[in-house]
Structures are given as structure tokens and as C-alpha cells.
Specification:
With about 625 residues, the chain is α+β, with helices and mostly antiparallel strands. Helices cover about 25% and strands about 30% of the residues. Strands 13-12-9-10-11-14-19-18 form an 8-stranded antiparallel beta sheet, with helices on both faces. A 5-stranded parallel beta sheet has the order 3-2-1-4-5. Strands 23-30-28-25 form a 4-stranded antiparallel beta sheet, with no helix packed on it. Helix 1 links the parallel strand 1 and strand 2. Helix 5 crosses helix 6 and helix 13 crosses helix 16. It starts with a strand and ends with a strand.
């Protein structure tokens, strides 16, 4: 058994992995950026190492910094969680090449073969797994997109090889969109996955999203753990996941699961992974009718890592997937047969995002958890890394927790979820809990007839606004000024390793610090939050004129202007990515660009100056 595992991630998934390690008797190591110095995963770990500034590219995505932390900690293995480096085959290969450090996940060759979508499509086709009509080689020319559209019909999906979750995917609805959308997809692929290769697929207008959990060992044993239905999505981002699917017959369910197992076996895949499929919905099916084996389903992609929604499968099967990831990495054989896998009852996962659903799901720009009182009771599980009083870190994904609910059947699961969400009390930041409560009263969702397009094309936005008004909690800080107890935490780093000293003063004024900061100490500046020359979009605007500012926190994907350029009102000056969506930032007036305060790849906060126009 490993003695010590470094978790190359943050937040709730880092804590989830650390809990599994603790139950296996394994010590844990956290890595953290300057923005995360007080975050929950750092508190939970046995030891922690600073790997860089807030910008992910300079910390959590820095291969050498993470591996160096593992060496300093004398860790036996690295678990990547999900996101960040979890599907980076190059990083996995570097870990595999590091003496005395193992990679907890599929080998780097499998990750490259299945993580890059064109390779995965070829592998699945050879394994007789249905694939959506599309290309298996990278596409470079807009003319190829137009030719594909002429042959298969529009719309056409352009997808980044290394993409997922809608990032790096663009939909072309006519030939005149081909050039712009191809350029955009390639740009996102390069920015987020360091790979600008893209491929084409026939775009399915109204599908269900079904995925199958796989676990496999080094000895040729491959098991599927049933399916999850992830059809409730907003802009290709999953919001609520559940299992088993409320729309499939047992015959179709088994057919899809067996296709996934067959694909994993053909690829020589081991450790945990998720095979995703699109199932064509029969729009004529009535209430109570299910999709049977005559329904068409197509392979979508493989996620060569643990999934956010792995918790749903764990509740249904009582199999700890993370523990099995660790055991497989130590060359253990799976301890159960396929016939031992039973799905009991029904489970749902609700992503608790720090967003205001009534404001187009805008992410919170800051805040403090003045109240954090999670629900409990039978069948209720919380995966989080939070505690009351924590400050919200806005430099990364907006998901702060996951609520997982299990019941004897879907009806009980829905009722229990309603109770749990009503109990979940969070004040100080906005969350999408009101949206989740709305969905549990929504006829389409309750009937299980929703598809991936339901939220974007059918649900009335006014209903979301009403839910926010009815169930939304306060987001204003209400902390009083008269504290009887002053608690201070001092952090010291020696050779990058974190040490903490806690000091408590009762009946005394706050202890002053060198920086003269407020009680609780100075927080590290987030990316884009300093003007000392670091990465970010907050360079002081010293040029005269009208400032074009960021309307939300995000990352600059492209800058379209330079100093001295003439622009007209409505011209795009830069492209800002936020919540995995590209947003064109336009000039409100015409004039001459006198200053460009950001560059490609910079992280910016809401209100940061991007461009000055005179």
C-alpha cells in the first residue's frame, strides 16, 4: 500500500480523494496556489506545498512544480482528481518517468489514444461501438467543414480533440459560419488543451446524454458500474446528474453498458474512466414510455479520469471508485465480478455552483460564507471543502460543493432532494440551489423527458427568476464589528512547505500585521488583482480616454486590437472566456486605442480595465 499520496487538485475533489486515502491508511499531500492558501483541501491534508501564484497555468497546471512537490514530500503516487492535469497525457507520462512516484490513473498511452477524440473514434469503430457520423482525422480548412455539411447536413459540430464539457466545441448551422467557428474552436483547443486539432461530427439536435462508469485493473478485468443520465445541461455543462436513467429500458441500458465495456477492453484501458454516449430521443414517445433497444445511440467521448458525478454511481453500487483507483494503481485485481454489480435505488447529484441562475448563471465575483449549514439525514451526502467563514475563491471553477441524494426509487429520491435542498443554508454568496429546487418541481424533469437542449431552448427564464426570488438567500456580508474572540493564523513556508501557527486572543483588539490589513490577515491577491507586473488584466489604466472593462471574471483568449488602432462602436476588442463560454468584449464608442492593458492568457477580475479608447 502507498504510504503517501499527493493530490494534484483543489476543493471538494481533493478532499474526496484524501478521505479515501485516510480510510486506506495513506497520508496525504495537498498542493495549493497563493489564492488557495486558506482553502479547505489545504486544511484537510497532512501536509501542503505552495506550487505558485493564483493563475492556474502557473500553479495547478505547472507540471514541474507539482512533480517537485511530490518529490519534496516523498510521496509514492499522484492522484490528479478531475480537471486541471487529470487528462493531460504528457503530465501523466512525466509522472510515470519519475522514479518512485506512481500515476493513479490510466497509462499515458491510453490517455492519448482515448483522450484525443479522433483517436478514440477510431478505436471505438474498430470495437464495433456505434459512433456519430464524422471525421477521424483533424480538420484544417473551412472548405472541409462545408463539404461535410453538404454531405451530412447542417448543423455540424466542430470539436477540439482534447476538449470536453462543451469547451472547444462550436456548432456550424450554415456554410457561411464555417470559417469563424473553425477558428474559434481551434483557438479554444489551443488555449485550454494545448492542442488546436479539431474534428467534425453530425450535430444531434435533441439527444439524451448517457454515460457509463468503467473500472478496470492491470490483469484484464473490466467492469461497468451502470449508467448515469446527464441530460440536464446548460450550454453543454452538466447541472444535475442521476442514475439510473429514467428514460431507458433495461435492454437498452445493458446494450450501452456492454458497448462501453467492449470499448474499454479493446483500448486496453485500466483504472477508472467514463464512456459517454448520445441517445437519440423519440419525440413522439408518451408519458411512461421508455427508449428501447431500437433507439439509436452513439459513442461521444471517453473521460480518462474520475468524473465529477462519480458519486452517483457510488451511491447506487456501494463501490468506492476512488479507493479502487488507488488499489488498481498498486496492481491489485478487482475484487468483484460483473455479476456482483447491482444498482440499488436511485441517486441524484446537484452541483452547488456559486452563481446567480437568474442572472444568466453569472458566477460570483467574491463573498464570504457568513452562513454555511449543510443538510443531513438518511440518504444525504455532501462532498465539499468548505466551512463557515471561508472566503470564496473566484480564480477557478464556480462549483463549491456537491449534494448527492439517494432513495429507494426516483420518486423518493426527488422528495428527499427537495428536503435536503431546503435545509441547505448558505448565506454570503449566491448559489444555484433555488434553480435546483425549481427543477424538482418542473414537469419535464420530474417526468424524465428532458433532453440536453431543455434548459437552453425550452425552460422559461422567468421561472428561474421567480425561483431565485422565492428561495434565494442573502449574499450580503452581515458580520458584526464587535468580536469578543480574535483568531489569527500565521503561515510560514520553508522550502515551499507550509507550516501553520494558530493564535487566539480573547477580549483584545485585533493583532496588527506588517501590512496593516483587516482582521483575519491579508489574503493573497487573485490573478488580475495586482498591479505589480504579475499576470492578469489589472494593469493601471494611465492613458486618457474611455475604459473598456471586464464584465466578469475570466481569462483573455484573444486580443484583437493594438495601441494606435482605430475602432468603431461595436467592434470586438478582445475575447473573454468565462464559465467555459467565449464572450466578445466590444467597444461602446469609436476612437483610437491608447492602451491595451491585457494579453492573451491573462486572468482578469470583474471591473478590470482591458482597453482604453480615446
Amino acid at each position: 500500500m502507498f504510504d503517501k499520496v499527493l493530490v494534484a487538485n483543489r476543493g471538494e475533489i481533493a478532499v474526496r480523494v484524501m478521505r479515501a486515502c485516510e480510510e486506506l491508511g495513506i497520508d496525504t499531500v495537498a498542493v495549493y496556489s497563493e489564492a488557495d492558501s486558506d482553502s479547505g483541501h489545504v486544511r484537510y491534508a497532512d501536509e501542503a506545498y505552495n506550487v505558485g501564484p493564483a493563475r492556474a497555468a502557473d500553479s495547478y497546471l505547472d507540471h514541474e512544480a507539482v512533480i517537485d512537490a511530490a518529490k519534496k514530500a516523498d510521496a509514492d503516487a499522484i492522484h490528479p482528481g478531475y480537471g486541471f492535469l487529470a487528462e493531460n497525457a504528457e503530465f501523466a507520462g512525466k509522472v510515470e518517468d519519475t522514479e518512485d512516484v506512481k500515476w493513479i490513473g490510466p497509462n499515458s498511452d491510453s490517455m492519448e489514444q482515448l483522450g484525443e477524440k479522433t483517436h478514440a473514434r477510431k478505436t471505438m469503430r474498430e470495437a464495433d461501438v456505434p459512433i456519430v457520423p464524422g471525421t477521424t482525422d483533424p480538420v484544417e480548412d473551412p472548405a472541409e467543414v462545408e463539404e461535410f455539411g453538404d454531405e451530412h447536413g447542417y448543423p455540424v459540430a466542430i470539436k477540439a480533440e482534447g476538449g470536453g464539457g462543451g469547451r472547444g466545441m462550436k456548432v456550424v448551422r450554415s456554410a457561411d459560419e464555417a470559417a469563424d467557428q473553425l477558428e474559434s474552436a481551434k483557438r479554444e483547443g489551443e488555449a485550454y488543451f494545448d492542442n488546436d486539432n479539431v474534428y467534425l461530427e453530425r450535430y444531434l439536435e435533441n439527444p439524451r446524454h448517457i454515460e457509463v462508469q468503467i473500472i478496470a485493473d492491470h490483469h484484464g478485468n473490466v467492469r461497468h458500474l451502470g449508467e448515469r443520465d446527464c441530460s440536464l445541461q446548460r450550454r453543454h455543462q452538466k447541472v444535475i446528474e442521476e442514475g439510473p436513467s429514467p428514460a431507458l429500458t433495461d435492454e437498452l441500458r445493458e446494450e450501452i453498458a456492454e458497448a462501453a465495456r467492449r470499448g474499454a477492453d479493446a483500448a486496453g484501458y485500466y483504472n477508472a474512466g467514463t464512456f459517454e454516449f448520445l441517445v437519440e430521443e423519440d419525440e413522439s414517445r408518451g408519458d411512461g414510455e421508455l427508449l428501447g433497444p431500437e433507439a439509436n445511440f452513439y459513442f461521444l467521448e471517453v473521460n480518462t479520469r474520475i468524473q465529477v458525478e462519480h458519486t452517483v454511481t457510488e451511491e447506487l453500487t456501494d463501490i468506492d471508485i476512488v479507493k479502487w483507483q488507488i488499489r488498481v494503481a498498486q496492481d491489485e485485481k478487482l475484487g468483484f465480478d460483473q455479476s456482483d454489480v447491482d444498482l440499488e435505488g436511485h441517486a441524484m447529484e446537484f452541483r452547488i455552483n456559486a452563481e446567480n441562475a437568474a442572472n444568466d448563471f453569472a458566477p460570483a465575483t467574491g463573498g464570504n460564507l457568513e452562513t454555511y449549514d449543510p443538510p443531513g439525514g438518511i440518504g444525504v451526502r455532501l462532498d465539499d471543502a468548505l466551512r463557515q467563514g471561508d472566503e470564496l475563491v473566484t480564480d477557478y471553477d464556480s462549483m463549491v460543493a456537491k449534494l448527492i441524494v439517494h432513495g429507494s426509487d426516483r420518486e423518493e429520491c426527488i422528495v428527499r432532494s427537495q428536503r435536503a435542498l431546503a435545509e441547505y443554508d448558505i448565506e454570503g454568496i449566491p448559489t444555484i440551489i433555488p434553480f435546483h429546487r425549481l427543477m424538482l418541481e418542473d414537469d419535464e424533469f420530474v417526468a424524465g423527458t428532458h433532453t440536453t437542449k431543455y434548459l437552453d431552448h425550452t425552460l422559461d427564464p422567468e421561472r428561474i427568476e421567480e425561483a431565485q426570488e422565492k428561495w434565494g438567500s442573502s449574499t450580503e456580508s452581515t458580520a458584526g464589528d464587535d468580536e469578543e474572540v480574535v483568531e489569527r493564523q500565521f503561515t510560514v513556508e520553508v522550502n515551499g512547505k507550509r507550516f501553520e501557527v494558530d493564535l487566539e486572543e480573547r477580549g483584545a483588539a485585533a493583532i496588527p500585521t506588517a501590512g496593516g490589513g483587516s482582521e483575519g490577515g491579508q489574503k493573497p491577491q487573485p490573478a488580475g488583482g495586482s498591479d505589480d507586473g504579475g499576470s492578469g488584466g489589472s494593469a493601471a489604466a494611465d492613458a486618457e480616454g474611455e475604459s473598456v472593462t471586464a464584465e466578469m471574471q475570466g481569462t483573455i483568449l484573444d486580443v484583437n486590437v493594438a495601441e494606435g488602432d482605430e475602432v468603431a462602436s461595436g467592434d470586438v476588442v478582445c475575447v473573454l472566456e468565462a464559465m467555459k463560454m467565449e464572450n466578445d468584449v466590444v467597444a461602446d464608442r469609436g476612437g483610437t486605442v491608447t492602451q491595451v492593458a491585457v494579453g492573451e492568457g491573462d486572468s482578469v477580475d470583474m471591473g478590470d480595465v482591458l482597453v482604453v479608447i480615446e
